[in-house]
Amino acid sequence: MVALVVVLALVGLLILYVILYYNKLIRLRNQVDNAWHQIDVQLKRRYDLIPNLVETVKGYAAHEKEVLERVVQARAMGMGARTVSEQAQAENAISQALKTLFAVAENYPDLKANQNFLMLQEELAGTESKIAYARQFYNDMVMAYDTARQRFPGNVIAAMFSSVFTPREYFEIELAAEREAPKVSFS
To answer: pTM of the prediction?
Structure first.
């Protein structure tokens, strides 16, 4: 009789542990999803700023049509991205296109002095910082989720519910130039 009670207690504790760990994995998965949605919020803000910036530059740099078209195409690519890797590729394209756009703006003193352009440039810089933070937070959440999924006993529970606890992708930089430290020269 005592042995039966002990076995039932152990089985009950095991079931309780599985339930608690399952709920932990659910919480972590939801945090990953929330972190991704925070990136979406910042990217939407960036996408909203880009057309205003392009229009402002267009008035000053009409013959820089190719640069402006690249920015617009990169924005469209970003808005159409469906997966983390597609979004990462699109964001790399947008970053490159915006760098080119700001380099072009350097050739137009009147544009650099335009209050609207300066305001948009400042807003975009702030948004870029928020995107960088959101990417880092998302990747931290993916790491916590994957670690919980891959460690014992999480790997057993995740395998039992494999359709619920699928692996997540990191939001990674693909351009080698963005991985390198910037070169500063005072000559």
So the answer is: 0.76
C-beta neighbour count of 117 within 10 angstroms? 21
pLDDT in tens, the chain (187 residues): 899 999 999 999 999 999 999 999 999 999 999 999 999 999 999 999 888 888 888 777 766 778 888 888 999 999 999 899 899 889 888 988 888 888 888 887 777 777 888 888 888 889 999 999 999 999 999 999 999 999 999 999 999 999 999 999 999 866 545 555 444 443 4
Dmax (CA) of the chain = 91
Q: Which tokens hold the place of 22?
A: 């399952």
What whole-number distance in Å separates Cα of residue 102 and Cα of residue 139? Answer: 29
Q: What's the 3-state SS for 90-140?
A: HHHHHHHHHHHHHHHHCCCHHHHHCHHHHHHHHHHHHHHHHHHHHHHHHHH
Contact (Cβ atoms closer than 8 angstroms) between residue 139 and residue 171 = yes
Question: What domains can be seen in the chain, in order of their start residue?
Answer: 2-174 (1.20.1440.20)
